[in-house]
C-alpha cells in the first residue's frame, strides 16, 4: 500500500512530512498477538510524528481487519461504540457489568480484555437491549440514552411493518410466480377466445351462404 504524502510540517514549518509505519500489537486471549501496520508521517526536520487526515481511513480499515483473529473477543472499538450508543460513561459501564471502575477504560484501549464470561455477557447485552436494561437496573446504573434507543427500535419496527405491507415484497415467492404465470396465461387466453369468436363468426358466414 502506498502512502502518498506531500504535506509541510505544521510544527516547524521547515520540513516535510515523510511516510512512516507504526506497528501496533493487539493480544486478545488465544492469539500470539495480532500485528497491525498503521500509517503515519514524520517531519524530516524536527521529527514530529502525526497521522495525517488522508491516512485515517486506511488505518481504520486495517484496524478493523484484525477482527478476523479475535474469535469470541470484541475489538476495543466495538466496546466503545456499544457504550457510547447508550450514553454510558466508562465508569457506569464498568459498574453495570460488575467490574472494577477502570475496567472499560482498559477494555476499550485493549490494555486488557474482559474475561470470557464477561465477554459473553457484553455480547448478549449488545444483542438484547432488555438484558442491558436489567443489568443496569440491578446495579443502580441509569442509561442516559435508553429512551432514545427505544424510540429508534419503535421506528425500525414501523419501517419494517410498512415495508411488509407493500404487496410485491410481502407476497411469498411461489405466489408471485403463480401470479406471473396467470398474467402470462390471461394474455394468450383472451386472444384465443377472441379468435375463437372470430372463427365462429367466419364459420357462420361461410355456413350462411352454403345454407341458401
Ligand atoms: Zn517539522
UniProtKB/TrEMBL annotation:
InterPro entries: Lambda_DNA-bd_dom_sf (IPR010982), MqsA (IPR022452), MqsA/HigA-2 (IPR032758). Gene3D superfamilies: lambda repressor-like DNA-binding domains. Residues 157-176, 182-212 are annotated as: Disordered. SUPFAM superfamilies: lambda repressor-like DNA-binding domains (SSF47413). It comes from the Bacteria. Transmembrane segments: none annotated. Residues 202-212 have a biased composition (Basic residues). This is HTH-type transcriptional regulator/antitoxin MqsA. It comes from Roseateles terrae.
